[in-house]
Automatic annotation (TrEMBL):
Keywords, in A-Z order: Dioxygenase, Oxidoreductase
Molecular function terms, GO-annotated: biphenyl-2,3-diol 1,2-dioxygenase activity
InterPro entries: Glyas_Bleomycin-R_OHBP_Dase, Glyas_Fos-R_dOase_dom, VOC_core
Organism from which the protein derives: Halodesulfurarchaeum formicicum
Lineage start: Archaea, Methanobacteriati, Methanobacteriota, Stenosarchaea group, Halobacteria
First-tier enzyme category under EC: oxidoreductase
Pfam families linked: Glyoxalase
E.C. code: 1.13.11.39
Name under which the protein is recorded: Glyoxalase/bleomycin resistance protein/dioxygenase
Residue span, VOC domain: 10-125, 166-280
The UniProt record lists the keyword Flavoprotein: no
Amino acid sequence: MTQFLPAQTRPGRLSLAVEDPYAVSSFYQDVVGLDQFGYTESSATLGAGETPLVELTDGSDREPRTDAQAGLYHVAFRYPSREALGAALHRVESLYRLDGATDHGVTHSLYLTDPAGNGVELFVDQPRADWPENEAGEVTMQTQPLDLDALRAAGEPETDAPAGTTIGHFHLEVTDLAGATEFYRDGLGLDISREIGDMARFLAVGDAHHHLGLTTYQERTEPATGRGLDWIEFLTPTEAALEGARERFEAIGVAVESRENGFAVTDPDGIGVRLSLADQ
C-alpha cells in the first residue's frame, strides 16, 4: 500500500444541487440532525458543532438526474457514538422513513433517501478489534440485519447531531471503474482498501475501512450533468500534501483550479472534487 496522503486526511463537505434547497435543508436538520449555518433564497449550509458538512444550492435550472447518469449513491454521516445513532433512529422513525438497516461488521448503518432523491447513510463505526477479516488478514464487510430494537434502546431523541458528527465517506456510481480509480488513487492519492471484482473499489487513507466507494453495479453510462452531486471535498493537514496531489493530477493530465485554501479538479464523470487544507 502506498500512502500518498497523511493519515489525518478525511472527507470534508459535499455540495448538492436540488430543486428546493429550503425543503431539503429541513430533512438534513430534522432527520439527520444537522444545524443550519446559513441560508439564502438559493442556498443553505448545514453542519454539526462548528463543522460545515452539506451545502445545498438551487438546481432548479437543471434537468433531474436520469437513471443513466453517474453521481452520488450515498453520502455517509458518521456519528461519534452508538447513542447518537440511536437518537438518529428515533428521528427517522418519528419524522421520515427508513429504507434499510445493516450490520456491516465495520459499521452499524441506517439507509434513507433525502427529499431530492439523494442516498443517505447514517452510521457508527464498530471497535477496530471487532472488524471482520478474511484469511489474508484483510478487512471485510458483511451484510447482516441490524438489531433496531437494541439500537433504539441505546439512544434518546435529540434535537441535533452532536459535535463530532462528520462525513465518513462518499459512495459514487461511476461509468468506468478503471478511470475513476486512476483519478482517485493515482491523482488524489487514496489507497485501495477493498475490491469486489471489476464492479467495486473502496478507497481510504490510513486504516479506515473506506473514505470513498466507487461502484458500477448501477450500469451508469453518462456523466453527472443533472441535479444531485456537484462536488465532494477532502481535507488534508499539510501544504505539502496539497502540493503533492496537485503534481499527481497534473502528471495524469487533469486540469487543476487553485482555490484560496486548496484546489479543485473534476473527475471523469464530471463530479467536482476539492482538496482543502484542514483547520488546525
